[in-house]
Structures are given as C-alpha cells and as structure tokens.
Amino acid sequence: MRISILQADITTRAVDAIVNAANSSLLGGGGVDGAIHRAAGPELLAACRELRATELPHGLAVGAAVATAGFRLPARWVIHTVGPNRHAGQTNRVLLISCFSESLRLADSLNAASVAFPAVGGGVYGWTGRQVAEAAYDAVTGFGASHPASALEAVEFVLFSSEMEDAFSAVFELPG
Asked: Can 33 be counted among the known catalytic residues?
C-alpha cells in the first residue's frame, strides 16, 4: 500500500473515496465536514438525512464508519467517521484508531483502490497531530497485515496545516 502525506484540500482529491471527519448527526458542520458537504452539493445532505431516517436514527457512533456517494466531488464515495472529542472526555485512543480502521475496512468493501483521509480527531476535537498520526499509522499497518489481498493500493493523508503534515511525516517516516 502506497502512503502519501500532503497539505491540500481533500475535496479536490481524485481518489475513489474520501473520509469525512463527521459529527454523529451526519448533517454537516464546520471544518472538513462543512467543506465536504459544500463541495458535494445538497445531495450529500439528503443522503445523510436518509441514513438518519433509516439505518442510523440515533446518529453514527464514535469510531464507526458509513459510506455515501460522493455526488459532486471527484471521489466516488464519502466515508463518514466520527472521531472522539477529547474536549468532551472521549480520550480512548482505541476509538481514534477505529475511525481509521473502520474507514479502511469500508473502503476495501467498496473495492476502492485509493482513499484520502483528513486528520480525524485533530483540530477542534483536541487530539494533537502526533496522536492522530500515531493512530492512523497503527490502523494502516494493522489493516495491511490483516488484509493482504485488499484492492486498496493508495492511502493519502490530506492535511490542513504544515504542523499536521510534519507530525504525520515524522510518524510515518516519510518526507513532508
């Protein structure tokens, strides 16, 4: 699996799936979530409302993942995952790892060859760049070991700041 780390706008990435750092309501928000909803168009909100009306009446659990179409995005799918909010007392690292692991598992089940992640849990949810990068690293290495026949060829970490890019580059031991 090829790993890339870059500072860019995740909504412009030409990959099979992008991961949305969503809130449990799935109805949009700020940051990456808001940017993805704006770029995908109103169809994404409608799809998320449909999920809430059917499969997820109580919202998406922290650490879980669910997919919708990408609509107006270059990506075919959006994989929504809810990071743990450290400011709300959600400090279990396993939940943060699960965001990445479940998103990878879902991307694989969709036969995605490429997926782009933001820094799930970073920013307003209070996890440091290093903590997010270490969780992502654990998830990616664990996924690669347990899914050797996966169609997933490329994983991108598309980050919002040079500090986050530096943290991921250090953990993954890749040039920034």
From this structure: yes
Residue at token pair 């440091």: 128
Confidence of residue 175 (pLDDT cuts 50, 70, 90): low
Residue of 16, 33, 138, 166 marked active site:
33
Residue 144 near residue 1 (C-beta atoms within 8 A): yes
- Report the C-alpha gap between 139 and 97 in whole angstroms: 6
pLDDT value at 155 more than 90: yes
Distance CA 47, CA 8 (A): 26
Contacts of 42 (CB under 8 A, 6+ apart): none
Check residue 60 and report its DSSP letter.
P
Radius of gyration of the chain (CA): 15
Contact between 77 and 17 (Cβ < 8 Å): yes
Pairing verdict, β 114-117 and 154-159 = parallel
Give the C-alpha separation, 130 to 52, whole Å.
33
* Separation of alpha carbons 75 and 14, rounded Å: 6
Q: Is the pTM of this model over 0.90?
A: yes
What's the N-to-C CA distance of the chain in angstroms?
A: 18
